[in-house]
Amino acid sequence: MIAHIAGTIIDAPKGRAAIKTVGGVSYDILLPPYMDGTLGKPGSAAEVFTVHVLESPNQGATFIPRLFGFATAADREVYEAMTQIRGLGHRKALRALAEPPHEIAAMIARGDEVGLKRLPEIGAKLAKTLVEELGQHFRDKLAIEEIESAVHVETKPSDPQAEDAIRALIALGEQPTEASRKVTLARQKRSEKDVEASELVSLALSL
User: Which pTM does this prediction carry?
Assistant: First the structure.
């Protein structure tokens, strides 16, 4: 499985790129529409996160290896989830990524079938199936990312008490951003390093 390629761009026509690694091997990589014009010009450095697929043009008689490339590992994850949907194979899913994958994941999460139908290859039936089969998956993923963002961005990484307090407030039903705001204010009132997370929670709840 080839999962990541970094090197120098040899050629970058629309929808694909040839990248030469430091070992001298060049890979031809197919790219989704959202990456058109973003990878760079020939001679510049580039990296892509890839999915290695065996395509069969002759109904299983022969197989041709293909590499599909994405800007980030998270983008690749969205693509791989979409290919699990019946009727949306590797090539079709690649063409459907006319918008950044995180935006498509958000559309699926909120049930935006109208927005999904604007994507290439996605009709009304596939849009409905994407929402029904992947909606909860992406809602859970986006919720986890929001919680982690609240914990790690709004507080210092070296403040585990504050991080624990934020998680506790979220568990009590507080929204991640509001939990982070309250704990930040509580931390300002109790700046001692040895303060317990439970004390920060109590103080935050009183704000």
Answer: 0.69
